[in-house]
């Protein structure tokens, strides 16, 4: 059997390389989605880290899992020595396209996150007062400016230190129950300020802020479940400020924008270098 020609080998590498590049891009974006929503592999890795180290490293976990799952893309960096003479920079083209795809994908996801942030409840408009245990607490609440009146379970406060790429913040939440009620199913949670102590709580159990459906980080949902609380579907979280409500979205958008821009710049620089090498090769011939 005759040996394949360099052109045939190049076409084969192009097809395989394109498939592997697409796999790497999709795997990386899928893991990013799991990181932001606390699902799947990222949730399993986070719970293992909590049980082993007592904390969770989201950025490091994402990078390690992305490298492992998208590792077939490393094939693109391998050069076939038999092609050096005729197609010396072909693998670089696939690699550049991979980086470009990741950059564009990150910027698109960043746009989606910003759009989602605009749909969050605002801090303007009439304030709704909800007294836990009253008929008003049984109906579906209106999200937005809200006053909750109930009993904050201070000894079940759960906190999360989020050390992300561009910011660091400590978030603390506690269940709010009907006074005297047993801590079974929980429908409302409230954000606790980082410097807030028991002495600063209002004696009437009143909390004012912005109510949204859901809202707890996925890590804390699991933690409250392990503590014996059954979160109702849906449940609601009262944030102290709109800045706290938007913070996870802002951080995610900034991180995606940074990664996307870095990938685009890197792809542009690699493309310029590749073109210079091609010109030198043509001149040498």
Count of the separate structural domains: 2
Order of helices and strands: HHHHEHEEEEEEHEH
Structural class: alpha+beta
The biggest sheet, with number of strands, parallel, antiparallel or mixed sense and barrel status, is: 8 strands, mixed
Mean pLDDT: 76
- Number of extended strands: 8
Uncertain stretches: 79-91
Number of helices: 7
Q: From the alpha-carbon coordinates, what is the Rg to the nearest angstrom? A: 26 Å
Fraction in helix: 40-55%
Q: Assign an overall shape.
A: elongated
Distance between the termini: 31 Å
Strand content: 15-25%
What does this 3D model show about the protein?
It comes from Sphingomonas aurea. Keywords: Membrane, Transmembrane, Transmembrane helix. This is ResB-like domain-containing protein. The protein is α+β, with helices and mostly antiparallel strands. It has 2 domains: 151 residues, no CATH class; 113 residues. 50% of the residues lie in helices and 19% in strands. The protein contains 7 helices and 8 strands. Strands 1, 2, 3, 4, 5, 6, 7 and 8 form an 8-stranded mixed sheet that branches. Strand 4 and strand 5 form a beta hairpin. Helix 1 runs parallel beside helix 4. The longest helix is centred in the C-terminal third of the chain and has 43 residues. The radius of gyration is 26 Å and the shape is elongated. The protein starts with 5 loop residues before the first helix and ends with a helix.
């Amino acid at each position: 059997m005759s040996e394949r020609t360099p052109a045939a080998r190049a076409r084969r590498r192009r097809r395989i390389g394109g498939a592997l590049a697409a796999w790497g891009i999709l795997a990386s974006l899928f893991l990013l989605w799991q990181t932001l929503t606390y699902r799947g592999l990222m949730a399993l890795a986070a719970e293992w880290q909590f049980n082993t180290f007592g904390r969770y490293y989201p950025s490091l976990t994402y990078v390690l899992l992305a490298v492992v799952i998208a590792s077939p893309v490393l094939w693109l960096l391998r050069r076939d020595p038999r092609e050096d003479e005729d197609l010396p920079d072909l693998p670089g083209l696939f690699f550049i396209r991979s980086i470009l795809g990741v950059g564009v994908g990150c910027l698109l996801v960043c746009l989606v996150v910003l759009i989602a942030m605009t749909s969050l409840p605002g801090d303007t408009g009439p304030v709704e007062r909800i007294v836990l245990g009253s008929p008003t607490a049984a109906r579906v609440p209106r999200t937005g400016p809200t006053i909750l009146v109930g009993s904050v379970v201070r000894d079940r406060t759960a906190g999360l230190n989020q050390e992300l790429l561009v910011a660091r913040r400590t978030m603390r939440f506690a269940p709010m129950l009907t006074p005297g009620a047993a801590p079974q199913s929980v429908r409302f949670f409230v954000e606790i300020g980082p410097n807030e102590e028991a002495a600063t709580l209002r004696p009437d159990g009143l909390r004012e802020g912005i109510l949204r459906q859901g809202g707890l980080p996925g890590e804390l949902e699991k933690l409250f479940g392990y503590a014996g609380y059954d979160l109702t579907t849906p449940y609601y979280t009262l944030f102290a400020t709109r800045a706290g409500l938007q913070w996870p979205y802002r951080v995610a958008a900034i991180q995606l924008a940074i990664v996307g821009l870095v990938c685009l710049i890197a792809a542009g620089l690699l493309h310029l270098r590749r073109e210079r090498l091609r010109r030198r090769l043509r001149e040498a011939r």
